[in-house]
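Changelog note: in this version the structure field was regenerated for every chain. One regenerated record is shown below for reference.
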Amino acid sequence: MTKTTPSISDKFVDVGAFRIRYIEAGAADAPVVLLLHGASLGSSADTFRGNLPAFAAAGLRAIAFDQPGHGLSENLPGASGDPQVSIAPAFLDALQIGKAALAGHSRAGAGAIQLAMKDPSRYTGVVVLGTGSLLPPLGQVDAESDAAAQRKQERKQATVEPTIEQTRKLLEADLFHHDLITQEALERRHAMSIGRNFEAFSARNMPKPGAETAKPAKAPLYERLDELKTPLLMLYGREDRASAGQRAELLKRQKPALNLVIIDRCKHLLPWDAPQEFVDLTVDFLRQAGVK
């Protein structure tokens, strides 16, 4: 992961009634790529802290913000189990940014696609990073067991605030390269996993009445990717959880026109495990999409 530079400091902006924290790098007039973190315990804008300088060096203005209930941002009352990606347009408005590319990690990848489907004229491109829900199952039984295992794990995590060693183990589970877990990175992630952030995580992961039996209103999003009018790049770690590498291969076979790349020696925290590939592939993709 790229080393942190002193120029990256916390900034805050009011988005409606909420105070949102963000970090950024790059010229104010450069094309914008908005980086959206996932919903895991401890997730925040800092997921992308090490990537910001490289994006700036490539001529982009890279911005990452703490979604409500994460990091140093305020929480949205009654927030669901998904990351609050829907606040992204209002966040861009607050910074007086018109168009932007979106890069969504984990669950935020699906949210980024939904934003672009809703308002394709605003987004210059979408980059998906390790979003399991956008991959077809290897089989129905596997799909149900993977989803159940993920829910069980998150609900278990939501019962007791983690120690710093438990935070380390969670990072190790999501990283191929454990040497990236420096003391600074560990302490930062742990600070974002406790206190009000843990309370928000617990609230998001409380079982909702009828949620287990509710049927989706539409076909899975991976079956509707052809509806997306915005250029799309999908990046996955070959060693990611829930057989993501195999499922990404399956999706590529089903939809060979997709711009989908599987990165070796990479697990779920792709922005950490494969920082150079993430930046290089994203920059090339955006240039090909006409973003300059």
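Spot check on this record: The beta strands are 11-15, 18-25, 32-36, 61-65, 100-105, 123-129, 232-237, 260-263. The CA atoms of residues 233 and 285 lie 7 Å apart.
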